[in-house]
## 1
Amino acid sequence: MDSKSDDSSSERQIVSRQIGTGSSMLHLLYNFSKQAGKIAVVYLLGYFNISPAWLLAPVVLSVLREEWGKEKQLKRNIAKAAALSNEKEVILARVDDLPAWVFFPDVERAEWVNRIINQVWPNVNHYTKDLIKDVIEPAVRENLLQYKLSGFSFQKMRLGTIPPRIGGIKVYDKNVSRNEIIMDMDLFYAGDCDISFSLSGMSGGIKDFQIHGMIRIVMKPLIRTIPLVGGLQIYFLNNPTIDFNLVGVADLLDMPGLSDMLRKIIVEQISAMMVLPNKLPIVLSETVPHKVLKFPEPQGVLRVHVVEAKQLMKKDISMLGKGKSDPYAIITLGADNFKTQTIDNTVEPKWDFWCEFPIHSVTGQALDCRLFDHDDSKKDSKLGSATVEVLGVTRKGEVDSWVTLEEAKTGLVHLRMKWLQLSENLNDLKEALHETQTLRVTSMSTAVLMVFIDSAKDLPKSGGKSGGSPPDPQFSATVGKKTYLSNIQYRTDCPVFEQGFTFLVSNPETDTFHLKITDTKTATEIGKMSYNLSLLLDKPNLELDDQPLSLKGSGPDSSVMISMKIRILKYLGPSKDDGGDELSIYGEEIKTAPPPIPAPQPPPAAPQITKQPSLMKQESVKKEDNISIKSGLSNIQSADLTIEGTPEHKSFEKPLEPVNDPMYVSQAPPKVESAPSGLHHRYPSTASSVGGGDLGKIQLTLRYSVQRQRLVVIVHKIANLPLKDPSNIPDPYVKLYLLPERSKETKRKTETVKDNCNPTYDETFEYVMSQGELTNRQLEVTILTQKTWKSPVMGMVTVNLSELDLTKATTAWYDLQPESSKEKDQ
């Protein structure tokens, strides 16, 4: 026995040595060919008298591409290591990479789910292979045709051995229908997939594919037989973060600019499949009709008005240095996006752009507004972005705010948003039409049309002959300027589509729904129909349920099975429910406003001085402040808090929501001197009349948004700045830094208010940071005046963030202190 085992082991050693020798020979030949190729290139350049300058551009491009690739590869390796780590190692990782359950108390650990996924992961490959081949490949092929690239097909699809990781799970048990279960999962996949494809005769591949996002699973309807759940709806609430590495011939595209094309196509296809309003339905029981899972069910419509922007960064270069910009905005919510027109040569564009988004989930979704500088010769430069949570808008009903741009040194964008709910009352249509006619905005909608195309039957054969082959049908559904395309059903004259779509309708009394079925094999039309929406208004509940409608231009028995439902858009104002049982996706509780508090006293008046013409503006501002304070007092006494608009829109007033609402807007709270009860978190002393250092005081609101991982700072106003010389009134502005480093990245600055000792700013600033970073951070607030070129410091205060409970907004007055030595050194 031992001799046989010794013989087999010796044979294995001989084979391994032979393999090692063969691999070393191949490596030697590869290095030899590589060096010979370099020498041949240099020889040919000299032989044909080609200028060495032709080598400069490829060399520079190669070096830049290599450095860019190293940075991306490092990020992929870190993500892959985190995906393979166990729970203990994840907790000991960097603070920025901690899973969701660390920060959010109602998010459960998911290690048991990760172990189950790890066990079933090998079997997932088979399902994913069919999904990629049947759904993703045709869509990618069609999109690549727009770039004159043809012949795309997947050759090999292997997801690898690293499964996705769930960072936390939350199951909703409040304000949820009894017939469904809603579960949110923090999904992170950083696998070692191996996907190869061919494109225009070239071979390439994708490796190290990564995706991270919040995915929602809705289990509905609940049934009384096994498996107890009729089906699933799976979708991302917002566009996930995607990264990947191209290999093979496609590696030539993996550089800034060129890889954006392929990346954009992949993101679009994932969005079209499972980013709201698109959902991936999975039927688990044959007793459940597909329409239950696939019929679109929006909760309302968010109307967005992108008014203007100001103080944008200057990106264009002029003869005298920095010129202006050519800004445009892209507004995104889920898979839907709109683009404004480009305004040339300005940093204060006025777009007056309207758009609307059907909302299928008010919790978890966020509106993203990104500003860019258009450039014909190179990639457009980013001017900043603003994010607004949909949940906050739905609770307020209507929002009008200037939002400070993130990822930008300066800039604000003016957004108006309105939450419209769905009504079955036909009488509401008259009011909706009147509003659109008054505003004279042609892109506005008055109703929502939901359509579900179940199937078609008896379609004509290809070639128009009875003995021809079955067609490959695909339908297009159109209302107004919006058209949706269905999936292609191959080789059938009775296709089952089972697809639903949502249309925004300008006027249901005059608009028409058009359906056209095409044979993609021959590119010929094999059936069409039109349905006047005014007929739907006469139906009970404005619905048409499973109705077979005849097709024109087809056979005599050809028909399509269709369901339609129309709802009128109606503004109902702010949400009247207390919201105590409703939780956002990350567990931030939405609470009602605190009970009425005693009327606060206005801040002490500034030192009296002799009236001079130069002080008229200051006196006018004081009068306005007194008026706003009086109105605020009366509103508080009537338990009806209101909020003032921005200085540019003084007449705009909206109901105030509690300051701990997860929705971020840059409007200020009521101009009162003390915060509501329940928000007293180590407030600074306000006993002195003009501040502890006789330098005045500043009012700030500080809050940390756990959901968005951002510190929000609102600079409201300054009171009682000292006036040493009545003929030299200061022009104050506020500068912010995050300590301890005081870097340019954390520098923020307000506008300058001319000739005023009691300026009002109401400007909002944000810092992106994890919750763990708050323990060692301080906010330095400095007040300066621009009366001289040096901008002398008038006072400052340092707020220790670790001493405040920033999960709830803290609004307080802070006494200004003399300038510190660190500020003098700046």
## 2
Amino acid sequence: MISTYITIALRHLAKRKLFSFINIAGLAIGITFSLLITVYIWEEKQVNRDLNNLPQQYFMQSAWKADNMYMPLITPAMLAKGLHDQYPSLVADYYRTYPCSANATYKDRHFRVGLQPGDTTIVSNFGLTMLYGDPAHAFRDNNSVVITEETAMKFFGKANALDEVLTIDTRQDGKKNYTVTGVLKSEARENSVTTINGFKNDIFMPMQSVDYFLGKDGDKDWNNVCMASYIQLKPGVTPAQLDGPIRKLVAMNCNQQLKDNMGIQLVGLDSFYLDTNNGLVRKMIYILAIIAGFVLLMAVINYVNISVGNSTYRLKEIGLRKVFGGRRQQLVAQFLAESIVLTGISAFLSIAFYELLRPVFGQILNKTLPHVWSFSGMLVLFYLLLVLAVGLVAGIYPAFVLTANNLLKVLKGKISVGKGELVFRKASLVLQFSIAILVFVCTLYISRQINYFFNRDLGYNKEQLLVISSVPRQWDSTGLKRLELLRDEMMQKAGVVSATISYEVPDGMNGGSLPMLPQGAASDAPVNVERLVTDGNYASTFGLKLTAGRFFTDHDSPMDVVLNETAVKALQLKQGVGQEIRIAGNDTRLTVRGIVKDFHFFNMGQKIAPMIFFTQQINPAYRFLSIKLKTADIRKSIAGIESTFKSRYSDSPFDYFFMDEKFQAMYFSETRLKKAADVATGLNFVIILLGAAGVVAFSLTRRAKEVGVRKVLGANTRSIIYLFLKEYTAVIIIANIIAWPLAYFLASKWLDGYAYRTSMSLAPFIVAGGITFSLTYILIALQSFRTANANPTGLLRHE
């Protein structure tokens, strides 16, 4: 019986080639896009799934009452260890790390690498897979390191790098040699232990090495808020059970400022990746899942409309089946079988399309999507269920509609299309156009917001700004003097306008904040001000605008500082320039020498924060040498800069980036969402036009005699084309009326997440509505033109 159903289904698909093609193409597009998004979501949800004891693993995150204090991803250095040592019945294990970067050398190979000095429990606690070395004793001593497989290949040209020696340039103690005692296998999936805040680390070091990067005994200071901390709870222990112990340890060991402002939250590593950064990944997953659902829904609606509309060709078949004793259940099964067969063909094509588009979508979504043959059992099962569900949903309505008609009318080739069926078909068309317009308008607003980011006056000039990120970090007067000589030498080069040494560039990663007070103010109401450590050339190199006073120079007093406008307002300074301020809890007086116009240091999702500029002379701390270039012959300028850099730092890599590229990277998530939305919008219109082409083709065939009569009575081509255009005009108008308020609400809600945002206007709505009208009208007009110009005799003979 089933084989008979399939045979009949294939015959009907072959007989009605145009409509079969439209249905197969629409469903293939919908299933392919849904499959790509499903695999992306699956891969995102698998982050951290390979870690040991995942249900008991938690990341310790700070919640700050006051603005601009510390990042939420760091906690007091001793907190995780204190919980483990003093509450062993609750905490099974812990891991702390201070992620940073440094220059590393092996013979003539020099690279800037991500370092992760931390507790030696990293391998055993999280079950990281080691290719070489002893997982139980990954670190032999304080001068040993564990590296990734990629790092081993990069430095040594082989994976088995045991007992090889790497030289690492430390901040506090110069160059130090480390012996490789373990090589980690390349991760099949990302995790939140070796990749922290989006930065993947290459070399893992014992905690003692923190002294070389953070300072002596930096890991033993309760008031040093610097560590990314993880704890593993005992089985059966809940995070709520640690609330009391955490509060007790903070109250006993931390200073008053931390006691008053810091809260600690435990975030499960099974959801940490999805929920960090205000749930950015989770939001992306939800948005893409909804878009994929819309695309698939539109393909299903196309199938339903075309199947019901094309049903007159099947009526006599249905009637004869009923006459010869065919039960309605068998007829329903026949139509469902046809739908599933057609969906199966579409699914087969979607696998080929998936493999073809996988690299492109992987690039758009910044995720390596696996090959079809690498799918897990769960993904294969989901895909099969998806195809079956689409086939059943697409076929169930036509099956019940076509088998429910009166036998005599069916035998005469007439179908009883009641009011309900007409309403359903009109409503489904309205739904299709509404979804397309909704997605289109939201996509236009995403584009407007991204354009707003890149066209807004940032308060600084990011163009032609090269930033060297691999300067050796010898944070003392000798190291600073050496770098200043390089800076001054760079400024003598023909292609260089200016150069500056700083700890920060406007990429959203600052050097922390300080509680500041105007001189004489009460010490119980400090303002947290973001700290920027620079030299005297920072303002001129980055194009900062001074509104009062001047920027300090390298020869000014170390107590001279510069504020931004927001800091002046937050500190309630009247004149600003010449006034004295101080750090809360410190009587040292700082003099304000200048005020710079506010500029966007962080992502525009955040308001411009109060900022204070300190000179390098007060306490050398630098990471970047930024160089403003002239526009002529950039390549030659870079080659000259590299040569000069290598002449002074021959054993350091020359790593650099351009500030405009770094700025674009700050909005990578928005750009990724825009690209995905652009694709979805395009697919929506392809499906809509395919569906419209099918419905119009059927309508033209069904109304051929009517067109012939109209032509005999004197109707011209234009009036006949208008006849068919009129049918869709009301549908598109109603779709716009439904879509516009929803699009306004969703776009406004999304834009509310940004402190600085584009304005709401009618332009995107008009553009979306206009393009929808235009494309639909052009398609209908082209299809109608042939029928409208046909010989009336042929039309009147049409059966």
## 3
Amino acid sequence: MQGDDREQLPQSSFLQHLQNLSGAGKAIGVLTSGGDAQGMNAAVRAVVRMGIYVEAKVYFIYEGYQGMVDGGDNIVEVSWESVSSILQVGGTVIGSARCKEFRTREGRLKAAFNLIQRGITNLCVIGGANLFREEWSGLLEELAQSGKIEEEAVKKYVYLNIVGMVGSIDNDFCGTDMTIGTDSALHRIIEVVDAIMTTAQSHQRTFVLEVMGRHCGYLALVSALACGADWVFIPEYPPEEGWEDQMCVKLSENRARKKRLNIIIVAEGAIDSHNKPITSEKVKDLVVQQLGFDTRVTILGHVQRGGTPSAFDRILASRMGVEAVLALLEATPDTPACVVSLSGNQAVRLPLMECVQMVSSGRRASLHLFINYNKVSFENNLNTYKLLSHRKPDTELPKTNFNVAVLNVGAPAAGMNAAVRSAVRVGITEGHNMFAVIDGFEGFANGQIKEISWGDVGGWTGQGGSLLGTKRTLPAKYLEKIADQMRTNNINALMVIGGFEAYLGLLELSAAREKYDEFCVPMVMVPATVSNNVPGSDFSIGADTALNTITDTCDRIKQSASGTKRRVFIIETMGGYCGYLANMGGLAAGADAAYIFEEKFDIRELQANVEHLTEKMKTSIQRGLVLRNENSNENYTTDFIYQLYSEEGKGVFDCRKNVLGHMQQGGAPSPFDRNFGTKVSAKAVQWISKKLRETYRRGKVFANTEDSVCLLGMRRRNLIFQPVVELKDQADFVHRIPKEQWWLKLRPLMKILAKYKTSYDVSDSGQLEHVARHSPKEAETGAI
């Protein structure tokens, strides 16, 4: 039974289904294979704790398949505490090794014997083992014939179930939008680029940066988008003949425009149109010889694999680990080995060998085909990069004479500047005159509006905050002045980047169209707020950066107590009434509890959590973490919870509290926020261009329909334009949150992974209800 089917079950039927899924008497082995990737430990932790939650025995298989073949102390039963404090650790604590012996039947025979000795017939593999599964029954019969196992064991352990999870920083596996480790690798690359940019600008240098990716240029391409690189080389898109001269001309033009820094990114597998390698050294020599620029090469190498996993990778890996255990419990003898994948914000299961064959055939046939096999988003990234990286000569640009204004509204959010840069440059490419509005609607009313050029937004992608300035002021009291400014500056379209205030502002402008013709123009909103509380979009620009800030801070806070016994930290996060940051931060940081407005709690739950922490302090994990959304409850404030925990925990543990405050809105934007802001803004401006062409008549723009005022939001895996008026039914205007929020379905994961459970009860039953999401059939038909 798949995720959606379970969600339809009544409580009593669902409890019966849980009993059928009981892991009692089952044994699960977890191993990692191939190269390490940040987030693998989060997946291991999730498998262990979810397995124990359903009463299965869980075993570590150290050193991958080599450990399975060698047996002995390499296969060890683990406890709940065994995976404590590994969530934030990079690499894999159970080790990974290549094993030639496992590729032989004799090696697999040894592995089968070692598993049967412990009753393991369920494997969670970060890697692949389909042949092992197909041979399983034959291996057992051979072991029985040689007298190594009893005939009863052959009957008892007749089937081997395998579920895979993909850990790869290259993001080179078909069937999933993101592999475990990719986001963290991007964080490492962007951290290096940001550091390089400061020294390079001091000396007018050109830097050639080599990143990993022998067969897949995802890291190189997305990094180039995130930092605004001058040129990028990837294996899937060999440059055209004469690229050497084209690149040097572009570098010279940028330097002539007073740009002190040039960045060139090279994937290690980059090739030219003749399939010859393009190396970082070759690119450097070319720039030095033809331009004489001071040029340096930086090869990142295994730095990209190292370091702490990002919040996204921790959450992704935790979801994949839980889903893997559920897939094993639901498996039948006819169920093929599957891989747990990500589609949009949904976890799905896909046949393992189909995904592997798509990757293999893609590499054999043509690297160009790999784009189509892998993801449509790869091509979107490529097209967006080409659109933004180089301005065509004015003689080649169309001239529309349309004036498009861009402004930020609401609180600042990391990634806003990347969105503005993208909007300005795409708008210029489309032939429009782009105008920047300073300080939101208030600045608009006061005439703080100016034309902005291609070069004015250079270097904006990596800068936090809002360089245009932003305010929460709504336009209602300035309608006449704003209309006057739109008339004076002949503004033909409006793009608003911001949070819930931006949404309210567009509603007000739309309602004022009956009185002011000036507002009868195309208007589009791009969601940008750390709170992630805008209706019509699963994600908002800035929320990922804030989530990483919370996660990093929680890591440091927990680390500060590493030499202190029995301490609980109470952390307050931002978000208004939206609990996204608290809930997802709790999942990423391994919190014991997260209090949010969307899920009501009372003194009994607070007391139960205190009792849970009291019991926890009796184990080797003598540290607790509790997150509270700032507006989760007007009476149970952060101070109240701190005082309650302090009083009830006397003699057992002491408490500390931290209010993170505006640090969540600051800092350099994450790779996700840079790229999300870049792509969504590009699409928004292209929509504006289409609407301008559709609504231009009698010498002016006249758009007065609902679909000419839209919000561009991310829904699952698609960017969708939705009229702001139609979204009113989806919004809770009192609390400024959407009525339905996808991430609430992940809330049970945090509880399952945080609290030790020894048996099922009614309160526990609902915790698994929303864990698994969509069936493989839905994924194949594109239903998600």
## 4
Amino acid sequence: MRQILTLTAALIALTLPAAAQDSFPVTITVDASKPTGPLKPVWRFFGADEPNYATMKDGQKLLAHLGELKPKQVYFRAHNLLNTGDGTAAFKWGSTNAYTEDKDGNPVYNWMITDMIIDSYLDRGVRPYLQIGFMPEALSSGPKDMPYRHSWRPGFKYELIEGGWNYPPNDYKKWEELVYQWTRHNVEKYGRDEVLTWYFEVWNEPNGPSYWKGTPEEFYKTHDYAIAGVKRALPEAKVGGPDVAGSGGAFMDGFLKHVVSGKNYATGETGTPTDFLAFHAKGSPKFVDGHVQMGMNNHLKAVDNGFKKIAAIPEHKNTPIVIGESDPEGCAACPGPQNGYRNGTMYSSYTAASFARIWELSERHQVNLDGVLTWAFTFEDQPWFAGYRQLASNGIDLPVLNVFRMYAKLGPESVTASSSAQLPLDDMISGVTQKNDVGVMATREGSKIAVMVWHYNDNDQKGPEANLSVKLSGLGKAKVRKVTQYLVDPHTANAYAEWQKMGSPQSPDQDQYKVLEAASVMHPKTLAPLTVTKGTAGLDITLVRQGVMLLIID
């Protein structure tokens, strides 16, 4: 009778909606004796539309936090670095006044603001992923009656960011010379060895109407002349692109053909130097039945298609790939109910679940994944937790940044790991709304083992917690192992939740600010030591929905 009752209870639990259950069991297995290959730190790339925020108080504070993740191995990409203007920051805008012309049409170069931006990076352990663009006003071929700068603001249509800045040059030789002079200046100021570590690419999303108003061929020409300028100043520089929106479609096909076998517009030679290739991938959240439902399937499909496209070109099968923007959706500066996931732990759990599948897709396609760039930074002097896609609000780190702190603690070598509740890759590409994804990845570095676990669902709703039974093997001869836990969830390492508890103040005083800072920090917790028997051990632990956890077994 007891067996019948137990079976009946189990069947009822399977038929209940996820939110109606209190918990469900998950078995995690990790074998530290079975390496599966190196784990590249592809997560160490970040970026933003607004370059001038890097020189401001909160921008510099956040840059320091990024640089601490992996000093001198973190990269930052920014739009608008060559725009004409006084350097005042604004939504989806920035300027440096690097290039103007005198009354006779002669170039006037001014590197003061670009230096300030790059100095802000380098002083904090961050290096440039240097985007060459957009077009200075004096070089723009845009209509003379068109405003050079756009007047876009949150709530406006995305297409309204157009202006003279997104047109091809009116003089390609002057364009090349600008890029040459900038690169030469950087080599002189920062040193050849330093600049050789940077990435150089031209423009942003030239396959879409928002950022590029020329033809594909005009972009190839603009790209060739810019790359020629970089190479003339620093022949060994790392150059690539084209940072297309999505996998790039026919535009990317044409670009790949051009850089392999087309006639170089600047040099007349066959092909264009290409040390890395870049495309973008975005999800598509929507507001459904009173809550946000993420669209990770669209994000992963774009990655899948981008890898397929590059892997199909024999000459670029092994070329390093940077997903130059990889995010849950497309506009960091656009608020709205569908973007209400950003401040809390939906964003952090999405990041953990999506990065794991991007690593997996790179293995499936056997491509050389070099970087996955999170297009999120901070928006200076905006309302607290205003709903922009950012890593910090008014100098207070959001939960998502703690996931990158976890990544920084992973070792260089993956080991075998599995979870009874980790959804297969193809299911993730179809969408994560029916079942929860409780996934795992594990690494080792010497005798140290790192186990990262996340609990994710596309629906931003409460749900049952996962009762984890973690089974570890390959632990060697040690009889006792120390275990340290790092955790971010709706109640832990979550400044947004603490701000809500305060009553959501829009002008926190200095004491409240200190409390928010403390709440944003992910504190290590020492768990009960593991007793190791014949190289094996186990522990039981709970992970709530939208939680991400890292266990360090040392």
